[in-house]
Amino acid sequence: MRANLILFCAFAALSGSATGAERPASEIDDMPILEIERLYSAPDLDGPSPGAVKISPDSSRVTFLRGKETDPLQMDLWEYNLADRKMRLLVDSTALVAGDEALSEEELARRERLRIVGQRGIVSYHFAPDGERLLFPLNGDLFLYDLGEGKTRQLTDTEAGETDPKFSSTGRYVSFIREQDLYVIDLESFEELRLTHDGGGLVRNGMAEFIAQEEMDRYTGYWWAPDDSAVAFIRVDESPVQVAERFEIYAENFEVYKQRYPATGTPNVMVRLGVITPGGKDLRWMDIGEDTDIYLARVHWFPDGNFLAVQRQSRDQQALDLLKVHARSGESRVLLTETSDTWINLHNELAFLRSQPRFIWSSERSGHAHLYLYDNDGELIRPLTSGNWDVADGARARSALLHVDEAGDRVFVTGTLDSPIERNIYEVSLSGDFEPRRVSDGSGWHKADFADSGDFYVDSFSNAGTPPQLSLHQADGSRIDFIEDNRLDESHPYHPYLETRPSIEFGTLEAGDGQALHFRMLKPANFDAGKRYPVVVYVYGGPMGQDVTNEWHTGFNEILARHGFIVFTLDNRGTGFRGTAFDAPLYRHMGKVEVEDQMVGVEHLKSLDFVDPERIGIWGWSYGGYMTLMSLFKQPDVFAAGVSGAPVTDWSLYDTHYTERYLGTPQDNPEGYEASGVFPYAQDLAAPLLLIHGMADDNVLFTNSTKLMKALQDEGRPFDVMTYPGSKHGLTRVPATGQHAYAHILRFFQQHLE
Fold first, then answer.
1. Residues in contact with 148: Cβ distance below 8 Å, sequence separation at least 6, in sequence order
2. Label partner for 528 (CA 20 to 30 A): which of 28, 213, 517, 659?
């Protein structure tokens, strides 16, 4: 099968010299070696890479978090001031808290869900509505930074720890969660008031439950009314959820956790939606329907503060209702309903207009994610976007709806109109008077944050040959200034390894149903087309798990390529952001079309003269670990070795919202669960297997791996195991365990593929 290819000649123009692929092997051998340890050491290999970028409400500054040069995981708060166009440190996290931080189990779990485990210091912050103060948590307490005075005030000092802090809509209050209850601090008197009183044990007030955080991209459980008159909050009762006794095994001891884990087909939490005043009075419960077996996915306030917009998803996830709920009476009605024969993907694209009673809403009803304009009574006015592309960001919890400029008749969005492996910024018409116009410049991956005024935005950009950059732009896309150009000059941390960087190749293949499958290939810098190379297929392959993107990447796969392996990644059907037809084939039977598509990639590899078909390995983590097992078991003659990290092995062991979205319940689809698990095929394992799992994993429970160990032992199949005491699902993000795991994987592939 012939592939369509795009070759990236990495840095030829930037460095003024030949790429690694063009240099003699003898020269490359004399250059500095990029080792695994360097991925975790200082300064950050990617260069200064600002995160959590925000524009102040008064449009006077751009703020962001950045790791210390001496410790990339220790985050400080910085600003770029628009008045003098200078960057400066606002808050040094170590000046406020020296030494190790004492974080609650709740906060550690929250960071695991947010995929920021390992980060320290200031990991999140919020602007006051007037733009004059910043609020952030640190070491379990809350701090208030005054931009005018340049001083920090500590708001709380407790052993319990505070999470999810926010300013109220007008800025009079600071709110937060402590010991599963909702609190506020009146910033006029600095008086602290407890709003809810029954939190603790199985009851959580104002908090996002496990399912909401891990699978619904909702990390909060409360929302302020526009005028500060009330707070809407979710009350979660975990009592119906089954208890999973989970052993967290550490180096010198173990702990038994009776975790409320909602395994597929079992009861979920019970949720109620309440509204309470900031004085803790007049608690009212909202009518969100008679069916309690639902998901409360999203909550917003209408601009008038009289109504709530509540997204209610059915248990089977084939229906999503937008409710309009009266905040005082609690009465509700359905404004609109989205339905699907497979599943509804949740989204964050809901915005109310200011000048007229209308809102913008996202739907996949056309087969792609597009925006629609409705009036506030739920009547459709017109589609705003259409066609064979998606209005999509691709990052957890980010909205692709960037800004609404009502006066200018335009809406700014992130989407895939130019390429599904890129993200660009587009201007679309609110009235339908013009076609989408691309605003962003440069092929690659753009993430935009707009000023409230809409006059300008900040663009976080990278591509395969450009490390992350941060720049300031007019609304029409013209650049005002670089905030961080991150130039790959001699001072850049990556510069010593530039000449030996693997070449990067993008291309497409064809799935069995004719759909395009995008792939990325890394080749060693001293690549010789006359040689035959071992290949490592890196796979994720799960829903909404796009890996083949035109972004800057440094990581373990680059290490593999630098050690002489070709690294190949293909996005199979189901990996998202390509429309419903691309995702639907895996419905009710996972691990089938995904493996078939990966085999299309393998057949392409075998057709290449420089690939040794007898030395093809595969590895992945989480869903990628599952895909590794399914590929090894179902295709025993294809792969010479495989590494499975933290895999799901039996989908009945995984959680409700994720698993039932694709498979239904074990009760209504027992055949699909049986066929989607690894155990019907485990007896066919023929290649060396390395199984890796954290022994305190609370996401993909360690039981998945112990069950597989027993099954393979019963079948008499040899395999290797590496377990990590006390480590959770994101163990590779933690320097010590990450370095060890990657070094072990490298040795395994060197042993079996070289």
1. 132
2. 517
pLDDT digits (tens, 9 = 90+) for 71-106: 999 999 999 999 999 999 999 999 999 888 888 888
d(CA 734, CA 747): 20
Q: Is 750 exposed, middle or buried (0-12, 13-18, 19+ CB in 10 A)?
A: middle
Please report the pLDDT score of residue 526 as a whole number.
93
SS (H, E, C) 153-220: EECCCCCCCCEEEEECCCCCEEEEEECCEEEEEECCCCEEEECCCCCECCEEECCCCHHHHHHCCCCC
Residue identified by tokens 């049986």 is 674
Q: Any idea which residues carry the catalytic annotation?
A: 622, 697, 729
DSSP 409: T
pLDDT surpassing 90 at residue 274: yes
Strands (E), 622-714: 641-645, 689-694
Over residues 463-484, the pLDDT tens digits come to 999 999 999 999 999 999 999 9
Q: Which CATH architecture has domain 4-24+500-681?
A: 3-Layer(aba) Sandwich (3.40)
Q: For the chain, what are the domain ranges?
A: 4-24+500-681, 48-161, 196-346, 353-485
Among the listed residues 695, 724, 719, the one whose alpha carbon sits nearest the alpha carbon of residue 708: 719
- Given the candidates 1.10.357.140, 3.90.226.10, 2.120.10.30, 2.60.40.3080, the CATH classification of the domain at 353-485 is 2.120.10.30
Show the tokens assigned to 349: 């694209």
Edge-to-edge order in the sheet of strand 319-326: 294-301, 307-314, 319-326, 332-339
**Could you report the per-residue pLDDT of 38-61, keeping only the tens digit for each?**
999 999 999 998 999 999 999 999
Q: In this structure, are residues 710 and 719 in contact, taking their beta carbons and an 8 Å threshold? A: no
**Contacts of residue 178, Cβ cutoff 8 Å, sequence gap at least 6:** 156, 158, 160, 161, 162, 163
How many angstroms separate the most distant Cα atoms in the chain?
78
Is the CB of residue 72 less than 8 Å from the CB of residue 118? no
**One CATH from 1.10.150, 2.60.40, 2.20.25, 2.40.160 for 48-161:** 2.20.25
- Whether 4-24+500-681 shares its CATH topology with 353-485 is answered no
Closest listed residue to residue 567, CA positions, set 556, 582, 580: 556
Query: What percentage of the chain reaches a pLDDT higher than 70?
Result: 95
Please report, as a single letter, which amino acid is at residue 257: Y
- List the one residue out of 119, 263, 278 whose CA is nearest residue 700: 263
**What are 453's two structure tokens?**
């005024």
- What is the topology classification, in CATH, of domain 196-346? Methanol Dehydrogenase; Chain A (2.140.10)
The pTM for the full model equals 0.94
